[in-house]
TrEMBL record, chain A:
Entry keyword set: Hydrolase, Metal-binding
Family annotation (PANTHER family): PHOSPHODIESTERASE YAEI, TRANSMEMBRANE PROTEIN WITH METALLOPHOSPHOESTERASE DOMAIN-RELATED
GO MF term list: metal ion binding; UDP-2,3-diacylglucosamine hydrolase activity
GO biological process: one example: lipid A biosynthetic process
Protein name, as recorded: Putative phosphoesterase, ICC
One Pfam family of this chain: Metallophos
Classification via InterPro entries: Calcineurin-like_PHP (IPR004843), Metallo-depent_PP-like (IPR029052), Metallophosphoesterase_sf (IPR051158), UCP008292 (IPR016538)
All residue ranges annotated as the Calcineurin-like phosphoesterase domain in the record: 2-205
TrEMBL record, chain B:
Highest taxon of the lineage: Bacteria
InterPro entries reported for this sequence: BON_dom, NT_sf
Domain annotation BON: ranges: 260-328
Ranges for region Disordered: 207-230
A Pfam family this chain is assigned to: BON
Name of the protein in its database record: Putative phospholipid-binding protein
SUPFAM superfamilies hit by this protein: Nucleotidyltransferase
Amino acid sequence: MMRIAAVGDIHLGTDSGGTFAPVVRGLAGRADVLLLAGDLTQHGLPAEAEVVAAEVAGAPLPVITVLGNHDYHSNAEQEITAILTAAGVTVLEGTGTVVDIDGARLGIAGVKGFGGGFAGASGTDFGEPLMKAFVRHTKEAATRLRYALEALDCDTRVALTHYAPIPDTLIGERAEIYPFLGSYHLAEAMDAGGAALALHGHAHAGSERGSTAGGVPVRNVARPVIGKPCALYAVGSGATVEGARMAAPSPSPSVDLAAPTAP
Amino acid sequence: MEDAPRGLRESLKRVAVTLKEADIPFALGGSYACWARGGPEPVHDVDFMLREEDVPRAVEVLAAAGLRPVDPPEDWLTKVFDGEVLVDLIHHPVGRAVTPEMLERSSEMSVDSVRMPVLDATDWFEMTLLALEERYCDLARVLPMIRAMREQVDWDQVRRSTAASPFAEAALLVATRLNLIPPVDAAPVAARPGEIVASGGGIARSGAARRGGTKGGTAEGGKTEGRAPEGIGLRVGKKEDGREPAGQVDLGGKLDLAEADEYLAGELHERLAEDPRVAELGLEVAVADGCILVEGEVATDDRRRAVADVLAEAVPGRLVRNEVTVIGRATAADGTTKVETIS
Ligand SMILES: [Fe+2]
Ligand SMILES: [Fe+2]
């Protein structure tokens, strides 16, 4: 079994130094990989990303993340990505990475995702340019997630997003805001891409568990939802190859962080 | 009824002593806190209040003491069984975090000859009244508790912090008319010059749903676990009660005070999300009787203060009740976190 530690929405500010590092250190020997489901910062400031970087630097396990909407707030997502990458964090955005865990290969494909809503109550690619841009941003994110999942050469695939793929893990949030919390296109991509587990954040008042129409277990790991420093999941079965190393991100090394209204 | 109370009291004492010995801060809550303060003896279960970050360790020491932990689906408490007796360990009563301040306000009392901290009577009524909701609003259960504890309670504080709940308002009205509690303090906030009057005394609110918002237990025996729908929170510290915003700030940041309350609540909610000092999307803003109430959870004290600053600039001169709580977060991945196997 491969052990995944996961948490989203840690929302570190410049005053949060020292709050997350003990969590990361405490995972030594208890998890094989730490997945962060976005909203690492409060305002998307590079100074906040430096705090996050310092908290996870020297982590006893690979740290893999997607960014969240808060991390985009100051239009500094590229800089934040660079700061995190320099600290050894793998930042995914329409990309994937494979971690070798005692011979078993755990593949993680990640994308921030976006809103749009869920089947029967969703936005459509119709009308004003802004509305089209909104829905297209979601669709693009979903497509890139699907390709990133499919491109993973591994034994077990995990999908990591900030926005939610299903409404089940939003229960507790007001129904009126569901379209701002996620999109069913993400779930479609997870089903098509053969994910064994999907992790997301963003919905602080949502619920932890759900599953896509295709049966992919979905967990909302937003910090306020899990109610503990991080959630732990065991996935997949052991394989036989040796070695424990972190593979380079695949397939596209250029992290393209499209802003919500970019075409 | 039956011999339940005896078993309940034994379990209550066992849990309290175990937590005390482990130095885990807690307070006796629920109907046993009411009993300790002179109310009727409960026959159902035992409630302890503690901070969320202390829950794993509490469960650990209680399990070591022979109690049986169960992991309920609710996200605002956990449970342990002592034989047949159910003990609730509550960390988010009525949707709000148990804070160190709340535990500090509790008073050390002798409960069936064991000394332990008992939840402050004012806090207790805030929770109990906020737990009233459409399906559980039996005042026949609440009134005896008001009679039993009335002189221990700061009723103006209870009125302020439960202002958004019509059920709490009804209970307090009945208690006032029965002369059980003092009438509303004179000089109400709504009479301030230049204030717009809330339309029809209604409450407009805007914000995210809160954690576990629709779940809840019963108000049975004064249990505090039911959640008031969208309930207004608990006070954070007496010092800040009734505190007024700083007054004049730059006019550019002001909102139009003539706006209808629901729009004002919506605008303030957006301000809190958009202002870089706060950038918090999960706060809830309510406008009632000319008073702005804001609730929710933030990670640090600075952010809590920033909430007050932003509102003071947006609606200068308005009374702002900052019911935002600072959640203390466990900073270590504790060994008791369960691993879920995905198959
Ligand atoms: Fe978030
Ligand atoms: Fe978010």
